[in-house]
């Protein structure tokens, strides 16, 4: 076989493999909703005189991705909490009753590692996200503090895991846990949702 024919044969083989691989690739979009909890990972709340920054709220997540194979997918996500109330303060600091609320947003990308089975897939997600927090609290009874600003932003690590059930050829119902790291207040959430594959 001539060199030109060998090159053509190699190109044809590579094209055939690419076509076979692309036949298995699928795109998907999905959402899930669940309970979220913020957790103070350092001295952020203590520095503000707040006793308890562990607040429960609603966590809504939207996802879109591309399955490169039955084992690996790339995923983009957006998640947001509802307003989380802040009411407890450290009265030893003479701050008085502080009331307010804050909410958080997360936008990022992750690699999804899949352990496939006939009807139920287990998965792990590892990635990074940009986070943004907005909110404030205030008190009218404090001689030392009248307002706390909860605003902040940054880029941090995110991870999650879960399982998805193949409800139909192009539809899956899932249960997942996700943890979004920030500089001071992490948010973890567990929820259920749907994804649509096409």
TrEMBL record:
- Cross-referenced Gene3D superfamilies: 2.40.160.20
Q: Where is the signal peptide?
A: 1-23
Q: Which SUPFAM superfamilies match?
A: OMPA-like (SSF56925)
Listed InterPro entries: Beta-barrel_OMP, OMP/PagP_B-barrel
Q: Which UniProt keywords apply?
A: Signal
Organism superkingdom: Bacteria
Q: Which residues form the Outer membrane protein beta-barrel domain?
A: 9-198
One Pfam family matching this protein: OMP_b-brl
- The name on file for this protein is Outer membrane beta-barrel protein
Q: Which organism is it from?
A: Candidatus Amphirhobacter heronislandensis
List the top taxonomic levels of the source.
Bacteria, Pseudomonadati, Pseudomonadota, Gammaproteobacteria, Candidatus Tethybacterales
């Amino acid at each position: 076989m001539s060199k030109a024919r060998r090159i053509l044969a190699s190109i044809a083989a590579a094209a055939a493999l690419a076509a076979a691989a692309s036949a298995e690739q699928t795109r998907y979009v999905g959402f899930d909703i669940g309970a979220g909890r913020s957790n103070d990972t350092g001295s952020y709340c203590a520095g503000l005189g707040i006793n308890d920054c562990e607040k429960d709220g609603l966590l809504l997540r939207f996802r879109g991705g591309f399955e490169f194979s039955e084992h690996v997918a790339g995923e983009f996500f957006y998640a947001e909490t509802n307003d989380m109330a802040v009411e407890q303060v450290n009265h030893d600091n003479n701050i008085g009753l502080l009331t307010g609320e804050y909410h958080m947003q997360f936008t990022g990308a992750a690699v999804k590692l899949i352990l496939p089975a006939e009807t139920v897939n287990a998965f792990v997600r590892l990635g990074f996200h940009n986070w943004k927090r907005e909110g404030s609290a205030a008190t009218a009874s404090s001689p030392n503090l009248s307002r706390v600003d909860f605003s902040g932003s940054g880029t941090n690590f995110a991870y999650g895991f879960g399982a998805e059930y193949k409800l139909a050829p192009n539809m899956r119902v899932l249960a997942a846990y996700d943890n979004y790291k920030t500089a001071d207040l992490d948010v973890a959430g567990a929820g259920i949702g749907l994804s649509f594959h096409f």
